[in-house]
Design a protein that fits this description.
Elements: H1 7-15, E1 19-23, H2 27-40, E2 44-48, H3 51-60, E3 65-69, E4 71-74, E5 90-93, H4 94-103, E6 114-118, H5 123-132, E7 136-139, H6 144-156, E8 161-163, E9 168-170, E10 191-193
Helix pairs in contact: 4-5
Length: 200
């Protein structure tokens, strides 16, 4: 019988080449997530305390994947060309940060894969995160294995990127079932992009 591959070892060989960023308003929580990611094999983990700092980091370094908490603050000065920045510190949900990252003309990388960290799996919050353009959702508390499964799904099975009038992000359709009446109405209004700029 041939030796079976260890999924964790196979994952580590891929993860150590990826730059990731953790966006979390709690320094303690951010360090904890960074520690878990290091255990999985990530060597380059950037920490951001708010959305503005995260965008600034992305402008100065190649970020291949983002882990964003649900509750964030966003800081910065007003700019006519940057609807991500704000004049004063204001509470801003993680989904809103991700949505602006997706649609802002000045976004450093609107196609970057995003994993959202949630405290609870309410239908409303899950729907809001999906509509913002996140790739995957992880519930707290989570284990290294929970994160690893989501990460590998993004790397090995990337979803097509959708640009439509009301949505920009990874395809939200996970089910392989046939569309209603065998007609996919989105084809008339969207352009589908494979993840060409930042292949993981």
């Amino acid at each position: 019988m041939p030796p079976q591959n260890n999924p964790t070892e196979d994952a580590s060989s891929k993860l150590n080449k990826i730059n990731v960023m953790v966006v979390d308003g709690s320094a303690k929580a951010g360090e904890l997530i960074k520690s878990i990611l290091s255990q999985l094999g990530f060597k380059n983990v950037f920490l951001a305390n708010d959305g503005f700092q995260g965008v600034k980091m992305m402008s100065n370094a190649r970020i291949d994947m983002i882990f964003s908490d649900w509750d964030l603050f966003i800081l910065g000065k007003n700019s006519a060309n940057d609807d991500i920045a704000r004049e004063e510190p204001k509470p801003l949900s993680g989904p809103m940060f991700i949505k602006r990252l997706r649609v802002s003309p000045s976004s450093p990388n609107p196609f970057v894969p995003v994993i959202m960290l949630l405290n609870k799996a309410s239908e409303k919050e899950v729907a809001e995160a999906r509509d913002a353009g996140v790739n995957e959702i992880v519930l707290k508390p989570f284990s290294a294995d929970d994160l690893c499964k989501k990460i590998i799904r993004i790397i090995d099975h990337p979803r097509p990127f959708i640009t439509a009038e009301t949505y920009k992000g990874p395809c939200r359709r996970i089910s392989k079932s046939t569309p209603p009446n065998n007609v996919d109405r989105r084809k008339r209004e969207v352009r589908i992009f494979r993840h060409g700029e930042k292949q993981l």
